[in-house]
Specification:
Distance between the termini: 34 Å
Number of strands: 14
Shape: globular
Order of helices and strands: HEHHEHEEHEEEHEEEHEEHHEHE
Strand content: 15-25%
Amino acid sequence: MNLSHSDRAQVLVEALPYIQRYYGKTIVVKYGGNAMVSDELRKAVISDIILLKLVGINVVVVHGGGPEINELLEKTGKESRFVNGLRYTDEETMEIVQMVLCGKVNKNLVATINRAGGSAVGLCGLDGGMIRAVRKTADGVDYGLVGEIVSVEPKAILDAIRDGFIPVISTVAQGEDAETSYNINADTAAAKIAVALGAEKLILLTDIRGLLRDRSDEGTLISQVRLPEVPVLVKDGVISGGMIPKVDCCVDAVRNGVKRTHILDGRIPHSILIEVLSHAGIGTMIY
């Protein structure tokens, strides 16, 4: 796309009030899905994060790594099993989850940001006792070593931000009820971290357009949802399936002080910049 000099200037002018509004504030981005496995989309996300940091906005990246975990489990001959949308995590799987998330995925993402001109540091929920959890036992269901977060200590994240870094966090937690690590859903962890940091925004990158009234029609995108509307949308079946836990994370974050939460389509290049620094906005905002 060829933009005239005037068009380019207009883009920058439009971004100015948003840069002023969010300067010095913190935005938490949950990074995963297609935006993580596609080279083109990964480069777009990384450049968005670096640009926001360069204009004075603190960006904290929380990542998953499902495809990489699946790949290593397959290589070891172990079958992936999910219970209510969460990965069943026995001791052997937990070792692989910790190795992949805290090692390969985290460090590769840090290196990618640094190679692109940013300054990132890798952290995991075990560092400084950042994320503490107990075994998840909701409704008497056995999830294995899947954790439910009981506290987030943000000191390591705040220290990294103060030192000028982009913190990149993998979601493995320290057990409070046992001497073990726990596997934590990345959306849930991102929401809890956003609350602990007093973040201005929580952005969940997904593989869908946002919240749709008709899941077969992207033209039915619901761009804004206020908290009181959520139970009605659940009752009507608009919020269903895998969207329920994502919306729950957003609701929890807003109820606990995060100003705005966004479910964005990570398949759209530069979706983060469009949402944060333009009038348009995309995806679904829950506030």
